[in-house]
Amino acid sequence: MATETITSTHASLNHESEDLSFPTLPPFPTNIPTAPLLRLSLSSLRSSPEESNRLFTASKELGFFYLDLRKDPLGEELISQSSKFFELAPRFYDLGREELSKYDYKNLGSYMGYKGFGSAVVDEKGNLDRNEFYNIPKDDFLGLSERPFAHPDILHQNTDLIKSYIHNSHALVTLLLSHLNSHLELPEGTLQSLHRLNAISGDQIRMIKSPPQPASDQRTALGKHTDFGSLTILFNRLGGLQILPPPSLTPAGKEPQWTYVKPLRGHCIINLGDAMTKFTGGVLRSNIHRVVSPPGEQAKETRYSVVYFARPEDEVILRRLESSVIPKGDNEGEAMNSKEWIKLQAMRLRKDTTEKSEEERKRLWEESGRGN
């Protein structure tokens, strides 16, 4: 991507003057342009109208931003707890794919539990993904599910960590939603009321493992997509996440190109999902992104990520809300409730690919709508 695409946007906080690398891992290459994410501060969001305005700008223009969690009690807890998940992840995946496959619930129509390596199509060529992940349901671990799924013992041994991380992640989500609610001039508490902690929803923690790829055959690990929830909180330590900036953030005459998002120590990456676009009639942006092999020497490392997906409550209808900021318009088609819509999005590519030909996998990708 052209360097001017990066430097022409929001340079008010320059993280290059600070060493925010991860000392135990190979450094992110210095010669690779990185995506134009605003860097916000959680502690500043508590009191600064200017920081709140920057949050709204980031949510409209790119739908991705860094959030500096340092020097804030909630933020420091999330940093500490995410570190514990990075310690837990290797032990969890040491259980092995055969054992973890017992907790793959796609045949029950659920996206919770385990997704095996190479079990989803990632591009129009029919290539398969190169990661595995486990979705830990909020409702199961907070005792909200009528019929909770079985999960590996190692997760139950870490119930306190999981529950606390869910509570803290949700507290951060609620704070961000309160700022967006205000800027959208919605009645007080509107967005927060659609995302209550103790209501049934598709909220989850996801632990992702992406092993090193062969140097001669490095491909997409997770195909291009937008998130289909409301807000995503991402912790990662190695590069690999890429975004495709919108035309509005691309210099005139240039085509948008995939650009790495550099991980920053003490920060999480926040991005908005499709539900927020639907609620706001397109005022807020859900941006396309994907995961590829980490750049440079980082490609030799196993890449772990810890994600919290916040989604609207199951019974919430995904339709445009009404305010003076949100443009009026029809809610296209029959609006679905969150449970139905999210299940549809999550399961589009979660089909048995082991016996499918390349042509059949290509057709799966086309039918998913992700190639558009």
TrEMBL record:
The keyword Oxidoreductase applies. Gene3D superfamilies: B-lactam Antibiotic, Isopenicillin N Synthase, Chain (2.60.120.330). GO terms for biological process: small molecule biosynthetic process. The lineage of its organism: Eukaryota, Fungi, Dikarya, Ascomycota, Pezizomycotina. Residues 201-312 form the Fe2OG dioxygenase domain. Pfam families: 2OG-FeII_Oxy (PF03171), DIOX_N (PF14226). One of its GO terms (molecular function) is oxidoreductase activity. Belongs to the iron/ascorbate-dependent oxidoreductase family. It comes from Hyaloscypha variabilis (strain UAMH 11265 / GT02V1 / F). Residues 349-372 are annotated as: Disordered. Keywords: Iron, Metal-binding, Oxidoreductase. This is Clavaminate synthase-like protein.
